[in-house]
Amino acid sequence: MEQPNLSYIASMSGGDKSFEQKLIDIIKTELPEEKRIYFSNINANNFKEAAENVHKLKHKISILGLEKSYDVAVTYEHNLIESSTTGKEDFESILQIMTEFLETL
């Protein structure tokens, strides 16, 4: 599985380390709550709401440089809209990898 990185954040910042840190801090703050809401919805079989949660989380996946994982999330979001949880395990692995990466920053 691919690993998160800060290359996209660095390219957006133009070398502004303060901006980079602010963006990282926002992601570190928002990700746990977005994950909590996603897991709550998926455990309650609220597929439409879970698809909306995945949609929001896709942006963080992209910002952390996870291009292949972004495609996994797109497919999973579509599956949830169709009331299918195909791709759930892969998506949740991505969330775990992101969480572990952010803990190192």
What does this protein structure show overall?
With 105 residues, the protein is mainly α. The chain contains five helices and no strands. The chain is elongated, with a radius of gyration of 14 Å.
The arrangement of helices and strands along the chain is: HHHHH
N-to-C span:
20 Å
What percentage of the residues does DSSP assign to strands (E)? under 5%
- Major sheet: none
What is the mean pLDDT?
A: 97
Kindly report the oligomeric state of this protein: single chain
User: pLDDT under 50 segments (min length 5)?
Assistant: none
Number of helices: 5
Number of β-strand runs: 0
Overall helicity: over 70%
Briefly note the structural class of the backbone: mainly alpha
C-alpha Rg (nearest Å) = 14 Å
Shape: elongated
At a glance:
The protein is mainly α and 105 residues long.
SSE arrangement:
Layout: H1 7-13, H2 17-43, H3 47-63, H4 67-81, H5 88-103
Key features?
mainly alpha, 105 residues
